[in-house]
Amino acid sequence: MTAVGIDAIEIWTGKLKLDLPETFAPVKDEDPEKYTKGLGLYASSFPDSYEDIVTMGANAAHRLMERKGLTPDDIGRIDVATESAFDNSKPVSTYIAGCLEQVYDGDFHHANKGERKFACIAGTQSLDDAYNWIKAGRNRGRSALVIATDTALYARGDPGEATQGAGAVAMLISEDPSIVELSTEQGYGSADETDFLKPNQQFPSVDGKRSMQVYLARMREALEDFERAGGETHPGDYVFGPYHTPFPGMVRKAGLFAFRHTIRDTDIEEELAAEIGRQPREDDYDDREAFEEAIRGYMDDLKATDQYQEWYANTIDPTLRISREVGNWYTGSVHIARASALQYAAENDMEMTGKKLLVGSYGSGAQAEIHAETVQEGWEEELDQLSIDEQIRNRHDLTYEEYEQVHDRHNHDKRVELEDFTEPENEFVFVGRGDMDERTYEYVE
Ligand code: COA
């Protein structure tokens, strides 16, 4: 069976930065550690005036195509995952293809284009679509371009305002991939939930605390489904666990739940039993309340063990390095978590070929998906080409007043003009609107 998976990745961050402990916390009159320690976030990325979901996605895709020496003929699908779309009919992928056609000879007329929507999980669903298309033998030797692009803005004053972010991840899905092969086994946890939604509005209606509970509940269902599908979940089987990262503090919670679940009935649970006892089993309790209290006690003890702390430091913490600096990228978040972990592995000369990742995606509304990925031989060379650290360093550091202007500039209802903070170079930029209110783009040298 031919391996199918991610052959190349490019990441593009919005060029502006809001420093959360230094700039945001003082104005909100809050302790900076709420952000750095509580949410686990240091900064959010924002798009400059000439940037949006199309430019960020097109710029990531362009860089990917250039680096891999691809032409439009090599691409048979362009799927864009986003929850920041500005049009209910015309997909963002057509805009991105239009941008790319400005700089390539040839066109994408024979590429199937679409737009996937299911909150933050849509990026992973687009990977699935590409995987299935190739596995079905419909790709005629071509690859798929999957682009997860979002500007995650919340209404000013919403608790979610601290977790904003903007950026795009472009991924090339091919046969015999260079970075990871996706597993056939996958598990789903999906239910009709009202935790976060945008009923024809730009800024989300969100029940933040509820969304955190739903994240955990659906992830657990997906993990059980993955196990039913034959997937392995022993912590020793996986080097990294990239999860959807709305903010690192969410993943810290998810990590503890995942560890508890996956050590049950394993050698690790037995080893820990002398120190903290075995995990409470529901059958041993008369009522649910008593069982839940026992679980909470076990979780507190588990969190303090060396085994858990070591697992978290090695398996989960390396996935959060980019996210801490850029905030929530919605559909792209789980994909920057994977890249962050592999970058860490490259920096630490870890031998990764053949090793596995357990990837957990989530989208509000709500659905979680779990699958495994096997790292392929060319991973290190691919990861070495990423420029995200440099991009993060080069962002313009906004004052609070500038942040307010930028938020207004990207508010679809306001149409505010604002001077650029940075100078575009060799990239696609937003230039205005046409007669039918379509957005127009140019490539600037
Ligand atoms: N030092 C250390 N930690 C601190 C702190 C301080 N000075 N002040 C607060 N914290 C901790 C809190 O204890 C909390 O951690 P905990 O949940 O482990 O207890 C964390 O920082 C956040 O503080 P909280 O008061 O809960 O923040 P909030 O009420 O402003 O809202 C969210 C947090 C996540 C609900 C909000 O940002 C949100 O709505 N986000 C959007 C929705 C989202 O991303 N959902 C995730 C699932 S997709």
From TrEMBL:
* Recorded superkingdom: Archaea
The Hydroxymethylglutaryl-coenzyme A synthase N-terminal domain is annotated at 3-175
A molecular function GO annotation:
hydroxymethylglutaryl-CoA synthase activity
For this protein, the record's Pfam families field holds: HMG_CoA_synt_C, HMG_CoA_synt_N
Cite a single GO BP annotation.
acetyl-CoA metabolic process
Q: Which UniProt keywords apply?
A: Acyltransferase, Isoprene biosynthesis, Transferase
Where is each Hydroxymethylglutaryl-coenzyme A synthase C-terminal domain found? 195-415
InterPro entries associated with the record: HMG-CoA_Synthase-like, HMG_CoA_synt_C_dom, HMG_CoA_synth_N, Thiolase-like
> Which sequence ranges are marked TM in the entry?
none
Q: Does Transferase count among this protein's keywords?
A: yes
The UniProt entry's sequence similarity note says:
Belongs to the thiolase-like superfamily. HMG-CoA synthase family.
Name recorded for this polypeptide = Hydroxymethylglutaryl-CoA synthase
